[in-house]
Amino acid sequence: MLSKELIDQLSNFTLLYVEDEDGIRENICEILQDVFKTIYVAKNGEEAYNIFVEKKPDLIMTDIKMPKLNGLELVEKIRQINAKVRVIILSAHTDLDYMLKATELHLVKYIIKPINEQKLIDALEAFINSFENSKICTLVPQWLFDEGRSTIKGPQEEFILTKKETSFLKLLLKKHRIITYEEIENLIWSHEHVMTQNALRLFIKNFRKKLPPDILKNVQGIGYQLLV
What we know:
Layout: H1 4-10, E1 14-18, H2 22-32, E2 38-42, H3 45-55, E3 59-63, H4 71-79, E4 86-91, H5 96-103, E5 109-112, H6 117-129, E6 136-140, E7 143-146, E8 151-153, E9 158-160, H7 163-175, E10 179-180, H8 181-188, H9 197-208, E11 216-219, E12 223-226
Parallel strand pairs: 1-2, 1-3, 3-4, 4-5
Antiparallel strand pairs: 6-7, 7-8, 8-9, 10-12, 11-12
């Protein structure tokens, strides 16, 4: 059974699940439908590729043997436009050639069918663990800060942070306390002219637009604190 912690972590991500066998597809979807933020479902590789291009899911879980475009061909085609999306392969094939080919595609996991709950849990945990060195953290449910890419991903859209915004957010997360106006001027404005009230006000106004609602608190006369 999926733990609450794993479900909470997965709820920040979107999944593209690709399987041409109706029974297997329905069973897996039933298990995962309330786990991921959104699940996109495809019955063949060609349909899956079109969904990927449009929706840009965080994880692809695909069978190998499918009509129109098999799973390996699908991942190869996706890798031409996206080298980083996480992929889990589900396959009845234990053939070494298939497995060696799959390893070239930088997979999170290669699962041999039949799929059971423990295999699924192990694969999903591997997916979450793959972000450990990527410096991705959850601000609040369904809001992710990706330090490496300087982005905040919310439920509806992704925001690109400026260098100054990224530095400020990292400071807020690291200190877990109020960051004073003096610290903001010395650490965030360090390579610029004196921080004016108008400049700070505009900076904070634009920064708030990229954050979850009500997460950044102004402590009057002192500075700012992140409520996470």
